[in-house]
Amino acid sequence: MQAQALNARVRSGVALTRSATRGTRAAFTRPVVTVAASRSNWREEIEKSTSGGSSPVGTVTTEPPPSTTTTTTTSHSTNSTINTNSTHSSSSSAPSPLAAAAGAANGLLTSLKAQQQQVAAALASVAESALRPAAAARAAAPAPEDRQEPVSIPTFDLMEYLADSKHQAAAFTVLAAMSAVLSVLCTVEPEAVLEAAIPGADISDLDVTFTRIIGVTLAASASVEYSLKHAAESQLLKSATYQRLMAGCAVKSAGFLAVLLANIPATFELWDGVAWLAYVITAVGAGAVNLAVITNSSGKGLAVPPLDLTPPANASAWGYTACGALYLATVAACFAPETLFIGDPYSDITPLVKGVWAPGFLLAAVMSYVLKDAADRNRLGASTFKNLNLGLAALEYGYSVIFGSAILSDQVDMDGASLSNLAGSLVIATFCLYTYATAKK
After folding, report:
1. 229 closest CA partner among 221, 237, 220
2. What is the DSSP string of 257-318?
3. From CA 83, how far away is CA 317, in angstroms rounded?
4. Rama region for 58: left / alpha / beta (φ>0; ψ in -120 to 50; rest)
5. Model pTM greater than 0.90?
6. 79-83, long-range: CB within 8 Å, 24+ apart, which pairs?
7. What is the CA radius of gyration of the chain?
8. What is the pLDDT of residue 27?
9. What is the C-alpha to C-alpha distance for residues 362 and 368, in angstroms, rounded to an integer?
10. What span, in angstroms and rounded, lies between the C-alpha atoms of 31 and 416?
11. What are the pLDDT digits (tens) for 36-83?
12. Is 148 helix (H, G, I), strand (E, B) or coil?
């Protein structure tokens, strides 16, 4: 009897255990099916349930039904040994339904995320390809008429402009014309030039004489620039002859500026503002043109032209060497105490006007050096050297006339020094004019 009662109890416990297991499986299975069928946001709910958060409504719950728990507890209190063994065997024999559902959901979620990333990348590529033509169209579209563009200051590259031989010829044409016009004005109407440029000055007769001398030096300058114009047209400016002449013109322009700056304390307030500015701009512009052309035509940038210091090879070369020495002495005399023009007193502007001689006679010295080199090579019949000879002849004949007038008007004493100066000027003029007329190519 006792054995039968024990068997009945065991069977009853096993039945209760199986009933509890079925209830537990139903509890774990039904919510999952219900959620999957009835809720559209099942993915977020599964993520929350698997991450250990609080279970919202409709999510999978891990608590068994109350009736099952009570029955299982009663079974444990009655037959603890048998129930424990049965529970362990059931747990070990079947996998957890929650783990299986979570694994399947995670796999599905990973697949959906991968698909989402692919779709997002495709959409981004399509959007970029669609926006690119629109951006290009906006960039190519003209600016609205009412839109104001930023103000830009126009620039001028003198070096680039003077790289072309036609522009070089045009620049030297302008310089030659300016020198010729100023030469005529200073020689014929010196008083008008001084009154227009320096209206505040008390002009003396000596100032008028010195202004005329400035005019004849500008005649020599015009002959040089005219020769450079023809050389530019023939693209010959790379020659050492023209490099030396352009260097001489650049030094002449620098000399004009130096004389002006040296006399600023005494003469600045006497100048007309426009005339003073025109003087500066002309000197700077002429010097810049010559330096730019030297840089573009020399083949080695801005460099000192080659100098030939060999002794003269013939009589003509010796004659031009003597001319160059006399011109350098005249340049030095422009800044030395006056020994010839002592008949009239100096005015406030006399040192300035006499100082402007110096650059012109310095250029005449360069011309003499170039002619000496041409005489060494028997090239005095070339058109360039004929023009230079004509320029020196004009300078010296003009100076002779002006200096003779100064002697007659008592601005210069008639003595040995003054007569030798006049004779030297006439000799140079005649020598240059004779060479101009007789030299052959």
Report:
1. 237
2. HHHHHHTHHHHGGGS-HHHHHHHHHHHHHHHHHHHHHHHHHSSSSS-PPP---PPP-SHHHH
3. 139
4. left
5. no
6. 79/9, 79/10, 79/13, 82/10, 82/13, 82/14, 83/13, 83/17
7. 55
8. 43
9. 10
10. 138
11. 444 455 455 555 554 444 444 344 344 444 444 333 333 343 344 334
12. coil
Residue with tokens 């608590």: 63
Q: Name residue 98's amino acid.
A: L
- Is the per-residue pLDDT at 222 higher than 90? yes
Name the nearest CA neighbour of 16 among 89, 67, 58. 67
Q: Do 365 and 324 meet the contact criterion of CB atoms below 8 Å apart?
A: yes
Which residue bears the tokens 């600023």? 264
Domain boundaries, the chain: 2-129, 158-438
Residue length, the chain?
A: 441
End-to-end Cα, the chain, rounded Å: 160
Tokens standing for 369?
Answer: 């050096």
Which tokens go with 100? 């299986």
CA–CA separation, 358 and 106 (whole Å): 101
Tokens of 363: 């250029």
d(CA 290, CA 250) in angstroms, rounded, equals 6
Of the candidates 420, 438, 27, 405, the one whose C-alpha atom is nearest the C-alpha of residue 206 is 405
> For tokens 């025109």, what's the residue?
278
CA distance 23 to 68: 7
Instruction: Give the tokens for residue 132.
Output: 């690119």
